[in-house]
Amino acid sequence: MEVPAIVAAWQAAWQSLDPERVASLYAEEATHMSEVVVARMNRADGTLKGVDEIRAYASAATSQLKSFRADLLDVIAEETPDGGRASVEYWRVVNGDEVGRKRVVEIIEWRGDKITACRVFHF
User: Fold this and answer.
1) Contacts of 21 (CB under 8 A, 6+ apart)
2) Pick the residue with more confidence: 123 or 9?
3) pLDDT in tens, 69-102
C-alpha cells in the first residue's frame, strides 16, 4: 500500500496528540467534518471551518486522550501535480483499547502540502 506523504504526516500528527502539529497540516480555509464534531464542538452540521477551529477541535480531542493510534488498513489515493485526495481506512485505537477499536474512513483532500478538506466516517 502506497501512502502519500500528506497522509503519513496526518497519521503522525494525530498520533502525536499535539494540536499545533495537527493544525499545521491544514490550509487556512480548510474544512473538517465529523459526527464527533457535533458533540465535542456543539456544531449541528459537524463541520469546522478554518485552521483555528480545527486547532481548537484537536486540542479538545487530544486533551481527553492518553494515546491515539490510526492503524492503516487501506489507502486509495490520487495525486495530482498540485495536490490530491485519498480515502484512508483505519482502525482507531484510543487509550490502548484494542477491544473497543473503531473502523474509520477519512476522505482527505489537499493542495500542495496542506489539507483543504477532511470528512470522517465512523463505523
Assistant:
1) 12, 13
2) 9
3) 999 999 999 999 999 999 999 999 999 999 999 9
- Pairwise CA distance, residues 108 & 116, whole Å: 8
> What CATH code is assigned to 5-122?
3.10.450.50
Contact 86, 7 (CB under 8 A): yes
Q: Where are the domains of the chain?
A: 5-122
Alpha-carbon distance of 41 to 112, in angstroms, equals: 28
Nearby residues of 111 by Cβ (< 8 Å), 6 or more positions away:
27, 82, 83
Burial of 10 (0-12, 13-18, 19+ CB in 10 A): buried
Rounded Cα distance between 33 and 49, Å, is: 9
Torsional sign, CA 66, 72, 78, 82: positive
Burial (CB count <10 Å: 0-12, 13-18, 19+), residue 84: middle
pTM of the model: 0.94
